[in-house]
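hey m, so remember when u said the tokens were messed up on ur end? i reran from scratch. heres the input so u can diff it against urs
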Amino acid sequence: MQALPPPPPPVAAPPLDRSEATTGDLRVAAALTDAQVRVDSSFRGASIVLYGAVFNPTSEPADVVVVVRGPDAPIRLVKKTRTSGVWLNSRPVLFEGAPGFYMTASTRPLSDIADFGQLRRLGVGVDHLRIDAPEESRTVTRYGVRDVVVSRLGDDYLDWRRAVIRLKEAAALYDTDSEGVEFVDRGLFRAEVKLPTVAPTGKYYAEVWLFQDGEPQSVSNLTLTVEKVGLERDIYEFAHRRPWLYGVLCVVLAALTGYGASRIFSRRS
């Protein structure tokens, strides 16, 4: 009788996938419940949950700041001025580079998390959002110095900038929530991204910052796509690819509709 071969030596189980960096570094990881939003005729806004975890091996508390920025969209403003007792619209001003959607959510007010210079450098917060002024400029004499190049808006630039932000906030396109990030468990957090009905389509960029002692320690970058679908998308793309033909078809359709309505009502009379 032949003896059976000895059993193979037991294989040690591999260690858990817990890297050294995970246990030793202060960092943040985040994700979205839905990275794609479809817009059709029944779209009434959307609410997306951003969730994540903070790996904090230290005993010092950390803050989380979520910044979501939509595609840039120019905005045209006019200012009513009273001339000879008559209110008239001023020369229009076109701001370019303003995001079509912008929101911040944090564990506490931004001014308590980091100082002014740090927030300005990172562009975190509506007050630190970069909105390019019109490129048109003029030369003035200021403080005795001649030919100083300034924006055409001059000292009124801040008023115009505040008007841009005020209009965006009224349309729910800009939002600041100092308590929008909620820790649901130790190290686990969530925040809600609310997209209004008028949210622009395109690619959105989300930044999840982790601050400690006023300094940014880690950031996680995410993307979100808002796109039109169905018949609305076909009409939208056709109107932008062939605007002249789209305009002609609209005029012809309106004329045919008016002609048909007139024929119907003329028979009834």
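this time it looks ok to me. The longest helix spans residues 243-268. if urs says something different then somethings off w ur setup not the seq
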